[in-house]
Design goal:
Elements (H helix, E strand, L loop, with lengths): L2 E5 L7 H12 L5 E2 L17 E2 L20 H6 L8 E6 L13 E6 L4 H4 L1 H7 L4 H8 L2 H11 L5 E4 L2 H11 L4 E2 L19 E4 L8 H11 L3 E4 L5 H7 L4 E5 L3 H9 L3 E4 L7 H8 L4 E4 L14 E4 L4 H10 L7 H8 L4 H23 L1 H4 L3 H16 L3
Parallel strand pairs: 1-2, 1-4, 2-3, 4-5, 5-6, 6-7, 8-9, 8-11, 9-10, 11-12, 12-13
Helix pairs in contact: 8-12, 11-13, 14-16
Length: 393
């Protein structure tokens, strides 16, 4: 069975790319196709992968100005030759599902979310601080992009969503049902700290819509210690509003990241995430989460057991949650046990079983005239395949 992996763009290392890592562990011989690849933005482990880019990667300044090139991504995706593969898994948060596969191949799309900038454009533009002219120019293209996106959704044989929120978005945007397989967290990469920590932790890509600013303002107003880990285009503006109790750690990986999680008082998530792997990483470290009550965290954080919520994306709402937070209320072992429900081993089993069942279903459809000659065995096979698929609904 020849497998290929496809990703939207390898330009930043975040939650979607961590899922791609897990998929690559399952299929280490599979090539990874992406329109653009910036090796400097990724851990050294990516250098051993068979990563294949498109003509888009040779466009001048594409790696830095990739966001401005969004109108040509669909064409770059459609230019990828996947004719040699039986199974193609696309990892999509924008255009990866626009690929074309052969009639005999199976295309499974692991959808992190239908593209925010298309399907939630006004909120996205406001959070990113678009001026009126930029909003008008980009907004004029959105109806066309939506129509193309909806049409290309029909290229997918099996949709996979990360959470109940994304299941609803996929159905609303494209009209298709999906199987929920949550992104994984590798418990072996994290450990429970000895102490309760003396700082709150914010770890994310520092971009506008993630709203790191409200946490920095809250910690500054309260005079509480906050460590901000990560990099991104909002870093300079965050430094300007930060008080003396806010420390910037930059991008962290490996042991340094695990230690930050293990020794924090609590991890704070101010963004509305499609799923949110970082809260699970914190919980794998036995630390509670303070999160905005919206999005994928509603599937992972148990209020009063593994964390607490705040209801508004404002500094005041975050400040109330930080002020009232009591770390002694939480049990580290119980929090880590909860995170174990999302361990990589569960993710691997569900993905592999789904690939096998979808491939079997495709073979049955392609060979349908021959299958009919085998009566009883054919019916038994159909029931078995249907059962496997239903296990993950």
């Amino acid at each position: 069975m020849r497998v290929a992996l496809v990703h939207d763009a390898l330009v930043a290392y975040g939650g979607a790319e961590k899922v791609l890592e897990e998929l690559h562990k399952l299929f280490p011989e599979a090539p990874v196709f992406a329109p653009i690849y910036n090796p400097g933005a990724f851990p050294s482990s990516f250098q051993s992968w068979d990563i294949r880019t498109t003509w888009m990667d040779r466009v001048p300044f594409a790696r830095k100005g990739y966001r401005a090139l969004f109108p040509i991504y669909p064409f770059a995706m459609q230019s990828i030759d996947l004719s040699a593969y039986d199974v193609v898994i696309s990892s999509s948060f924008s255009f990866a599902h626009h690929i074309h596969t052969t009639e005999d191949a199976v295309h499974l799309c692991y959808c992190h979310s239908p593209a925010r900038f298309m399907w939630d454009y006004h909120r996205y533009a406001n959070n990113e601080g678009f001026g009126w002219l930029k909003q008008m120019l980009i907004g004029a293209t959105i109806p066309i992009m939506k129509a193309l996106d909806r049409s290309s959704a029909g290229n997918v044989d099996q949709w996979i969503s990360t959470s109940n929120l994304i299941t609803r978005r996929i159905h609303k945007s494209y009209g298709f049902d999906s199987v929920i397989i949550p992104p994984p967290v590798d418990l072996n990469e994290f450990h429970v700290g000895e102490g309760k920590g003396d700082y709150f932790l914010l770890l994310m890509r520092l971009v506008g819509w993630k709203r790191a600013d409200i946490v920095v303002r809250a910690a500054t107003d309260l005079g509480l210690p906050l460590v901000v880990a990560g990099s991104g285009r909002e870093l300079a503006s965050l430094r300007k509003i930060a008080g003396p109790t806010v420390t910037f750690a930059g991008r962290v990986d490996g042991q340094a990241k695990a230690d930050l999680y293990a020794n924090c008082r609590a991890f704070i998530l101010p963004s509305s995430e499609d799923f949110g792997i970082t809260p699970l990483e914190a919980m794998a470290s036995g630390r509670p989460v303070i999160a905005y009550r919206h999005g994928g965290v509603l599937d992972t954080v148990v209020e009063g057991v593994t964390g607490a919520f705040f209801d508004h994306q404002t500094p005041e709402s975050v400040a109330d949650a930080m002020r009232n937070f009591d770390p002694s209320h939480y049990d580290s072992a119980r929090i880590r046990d909860h995170a174990a429900n999302f361990d990589s081993s569960h993710f691997a089993r569900k993905i592999l079983d789904l690939v096998v069942s979808c491939r079997a279903e495709r073979k049955k459809l392609v060979q349908f005239p021959l299958t009919l000659q085998n009566g009883v065995q054919a019916n038994h096979h159909i029931r078995a395949v249907s059962g496997n698929v239903m296990d993950f609904r």
